[in-house]
Design brief:
The chain is α/β, with parallel strands linked by helices and 346 residues long. 46% of the residues lie in helices and 12% in strands. The strands form 2 sheets. A 5-stranded mixed sheet has the order 4-3-2-5-6, sandwiched between helices. The chain has a two-stranded antiparallel sheet with strand order 1-7.
Length: 346
Amino acid sequence: MTERQQALSLIDEACASGARIGAACDVLGVTIRTVQRWKIQRALGDQRRGPRTPPKNKLTKEERAKILKVVNQRKYRNLSPKQIVPQLADRGTYLASESTIYRVLREVGQLKHRSPARPAERYHPPKLQATGPNQVYSWDITYLKSPVKGEFYYLYLVMDIWSRKIVGWSVESEQLSELAAELMVQICVDEGIGPNSVKLHADNGGPMKGATMLATLQKLGIVPSFNRPGVSNDNPFSESLFGTMKYRPAYPRASFESITSARAWVREFVHWYNERHLHSGLRFVTPSSRHQRQDEGILEKRRALYEQARRAHPERWSGAIRNWDPVGNVVLNGHVQLAVQAKQAA
């Protein structure tokens, strides 16, 4: 739907609800005369007639039929026109150019897949929903600069997407699936996680899909989930968390002096993030409060305070009080799914 069509639809909807067309036009920033012209053009439809005579170089029905007959022969049916045309030329045959053959095949719906290879698979964005703590985890590895140029420390970080709490972390000198597996075992002990209760999402890196890691997850009863191939933004919670961490004022601009200092800094950051950071995505409660399901009580007290303030001075409130309702279920890549649905609907 074009912008003009959207504007006409909104104006029609507003007028049907009792609004004046002039007021509706003012809101959208267009004049009544413009809307009238648009409606006339919409009623008339496309008035372009196109060419009145067929082009002189147009293929005849017999030529089109011959092209389709040749390209659908057994030896050509799995080849693209770019491969067919040279082979025909070697045999002393010319039917048409590659672009013409492409156009003919497109018109009859035979251009979708002409190859002996299997068609490309369509991957849908992973969509995991968490209705409480310890249901869906997200994890990733990020680089931390070391004093040696070209060498890094690696921060393994696991978070609960429902509460945004960092449930486990470690700083290592290597990226290994064995180290990731050890971290997950420790998290299960700390959080008291039983089998078949947690889904773990990650990207397609080597440590994430390593044999030791996958075997450990299977043993723990944790269901793995991964990004779509070639898509880097299917893990938004972990990426956002790394952004929050690396833009902290205290984050070293140069490098960490040693792996010990890196671990000490991350330990302080995790404590701040879990226990003191008022998360904007959680109605400004801390991840630990949300993880322990204390957010409802905190938000209820805030709501009562605001309602008391409005009763004391109703003239200072033009509308409802601030929204202090607890955040509901959390969906991994819910925004991606909505975008895909909107694109399909359009």
